[in-house]
């Protein structure tokens, strides 16, 4: 059970401890096993058998310049929410994006003649976005007293879902050309999707008699996140530990990856891939549609903000919560719905100056149901030792025109370990950065 306002706060903070995945750096490291996740045609040169150990990647961002430290601070032994500084930095409409991928295990097999490759794998994924108005944060923090005579829009939009995928791929080498195709079976765990056409939630306080008027035309779909709403006690049955829940074949879908790599000469190669073609999940387990369409006038006055968020023993919420129940009157009905997996396109090329130095160019495109993101980068890779690889990259994307990336790969014997980030400074400043990009993993290649 979640206490007062925690659902909204959880959504707003989802990116502040965690843009869409670029993974540009992996395109310059095709000898690293986990690069296969970006292109099914990739297979480490000279390797016959690969065991992919766990890998982790995270890419998240908040629009503007909001960071973890802008929202949370220490007060004695408590960590409390402080939106005072954050509100000043917010735009009229604010966006949060996040993608997380946990590759649990994978297996790669290459034929003795190097013509065929097979891959099998499993991964756990989370993807989502949130769009919210500045006025929502203002009301949560300041209450309604400073906005008497103003109409405030406090409706947020979101699409958040997590799922697991089981994959199988095949690659075929024909001379200097390698082709790869992968099929992925998707099983959904949980999802929360608002309805764009029904996103009205407004509040108005009359300047003469402090009469509070609220209007709603708001709806969302949920599977295994919100199962019921009782605002009389704010009894949201809100499941936050979705990764602890099992995926369901009742929430299923299929996606495809296609890719190629062509060696144009001994030193020059190009590659491209399309990921998540046709990727959709149909949600049936615990799938419901919630909607509220109501207008309500409350002969009240004002309500507090700060104390509601962080808790105050002196506030009696009972009457206010009863009023919220009268206002929203959420109705629930069983209904299936569908979510679309982000479509990704990657392309690049590499040129080897020598056995130790290599340069690459890389491009990336992602499309979700409400936005697109593009990125381009130039990389330089140095292999000072047979078992050590260092790389740097300059890239520009839809958020920033100046990103400095870095990768390090250590490959003694059959062991492969790597760390990569398209924005190195952000990867090591999680609490003071509005964007994060990192990826790390390990494998055994024989």
Label this structure with key terms.
single chain, 446 residues, mainly beta, Porin, 14-stranded antiparallel barrel, two-stranded antiparallel ribbon, 11% helix, elongated, disordered N terminus
Characterise this structure.
The chain is mostly beta strands and 446 residues long. The protein has 7 helices and 22 strands. It has one domain (6-445): Porin (Beta Barrel). Helices cover 11% and strands 53% of the residues. A hairpin with a 4-residue loop joins strand 16 and strand 17 (357-367). The radius of gyration is 25 Å and the shape is elongated.
Task: Provide a short characterization of the protein structure.
The protein has 446 residues and is mainly β.
> Numbering strands along the chain, what is their spatial order in the largest sheet?
1-4-5-7-8-10-11-16-17-18-19-20-21-22
End-to-end Cα distance, whole Å, is 49 Å
Shape: elongated
User: What is the average per-residue confidence, as pLDDT, rounded to a whole number?
Assistant: 83
What characterizes the major β-sheet?
14 strands, antiparallel, barrel
Total number of β-strand segments? 22
Highest CATH level, the class: Mainly Beta
Unreliable residue runs: 1-21, 232-244, 312-321
Structural class, please? mainly beta
Helix content: 10-25%
